[in-house]
Automatic annotation (TrEMBL):
Lineage of the organism: Eukaryota, Metazoa, Chordata, Craniata, Vertebrata
PANTHER family referenced in this protein's UniProt entry, alphabetically: PALMITOYLTRANSFERASE ZDHHC16 (PTHR12246)
Name this polypeptide is given: Palmitoyltransferase
Coiled-coil boundaries: none
Catalysed conversion reaction: L-cysteinyl-[protein] + hexadecanoyl-CoA = S-hexadecanoyl-L-cysteinyl-[protein] + CoA
């Protein structure tokens, strides 16, 4: 027991190393650009002020989005998806797998669950003891089920999912902007130091490495950001891109694809003025997502009663599952 706790403690400590690396590179780039380039190398006052203003805007947005990606907790399924005491007793006392599956099917009739396991059974997490909502997966690193899980990112030491996917995308975009701005403004001084037009000194080392590091990070971020833009346009997560979600009718990679405009709104919200600001504006609560099959959606009472799934002002979750349960049970198969 003590050894296991020690290993988990070491794992948590080491998991922060990638974050410390990114933070160290960012702080060094700040020093190199602000002090070594702008204050010690540039001689034109207007150029110096303009560079510093734009740089600090990029740096603040980069830091803000990185902070939100790291410290926004991954959202987990609410209590409605947990087994009640009586259901848990029934499930644990039943030894026959088929009977256990039938118990989960009966419970799932009360919930907006449309995806299945590869075997066709209701997706259930034995570790968290919850029925998994659509697009929810268990993260072995965070040791919890994560709503609309995309992947676990070591560079933010956090699960990227419903609660922080927008922040992660903005972090990638502002990181690219940060690198592009540094590379574009440093390039002429990089050449001057390279050919010897500027005297040797500490600034030469910092400017040369600023150029190389900015280009290196930009190239790697460009491919990653492009891939996630494609995922957003298709309304897929990284996990769904590798393994198609399974519905009652079978696997369908485009099961949640409702058109580019609505796909973007699911992640960034309807207010476009807030799209590029790291505040939470994603639609829904992560437990239910509109389906591509419009005919099914039009008869789904949850679309007309979506507010019933939001937590009440006092933080309680009572009353969220009311009359729609009887209609939902008609939508979901009993076997």
């Amino acid at each position: 027991m003590a050894l296991s706790r020690g290993l988990r403690c070491c794992q948590r400590v080491f998991s922060w190393i990638p974050v410390l690396i990114i933070t160290s590179v960012a702080l060094w780039s700040y020093y190199a650009y602000v002090f070594e380039l702008c204050l010690f190398t540039l001689t034109n006052t207007f150029e110096k002020v303009a560079y510093l203003l734009v740089f600090h805007v990029c740096f603040v947005m980069f830091s803000w989005t990185y902070w939100r990606s790291i410290f926004t907790p991954a959202a987990s399924p609410c209590k409605k998806f947990q087994l009640s005491y009586s259901d848990k007793q029934r499930y644990e006392m039943e030894e026959r797998p088929d009977a256990q599956k039938q118990i989960l099917v009966e419970i799932a009739k009360k919930l907006p669950i449309f995806t299945r396991a590869q075997s066709g059974a209701i997706r259930f997490c034995d570790r968290c003891q919850v029925l998994k909502p659509d697009r929810c997966h268990h993260c072995s690193v965070c040791e919890t089920c994560v709503l609309k899980m995309d992947h676990h990112c070591p560079w933010v030491n956090n699960c990227v999912g419903f609660s922080n996917y927008k922040f992660f995308l903005l972090f990638l975009s502002y990181s690219m902007l940060y690198c592009v701005f540094i590379a574009a403004t440093v390039f002429q001084y990089f050449l001057k130091f390279w050919v010897g037009d500027l005297p040797n000194g500490p600034a030469k080392f910092h400017v040369l490495f600023l150029m190389f590091v900015a280009l290196m990070f930009f190239v790697s971020l460009m491919f990653l950001f492009g891939y996630h833009c494609w995922l957003v346009a298709k309304n897929r997560s990284t996990l769904e891109a590798f393994s198609a979600p399974v519905f009652v009718s079978g696997p369908d990679r485009n099961g949640f694809n409702v058109g580019i405009r609505r796909n973007l709104q699911q992640v960034f919200g309807e207010n476009r003025r807030l799209w590029f600001i790291p505040v939470f504006t994603s639609q829904g609560n992560g437990h239910y997502f509109p389906l591509k099959n419009r005919s099914s959606e039009s008869h789904n009472p949850l679309l007309a009663n979506e507010d019933m799934w939001e937590e009440s002002d006092d933080g309680s979750e009572e009353g969220s599952l009311g009359e729609p349960n009887a209609v939902i049970s008609l939508l979901l198969p009993s076997s």
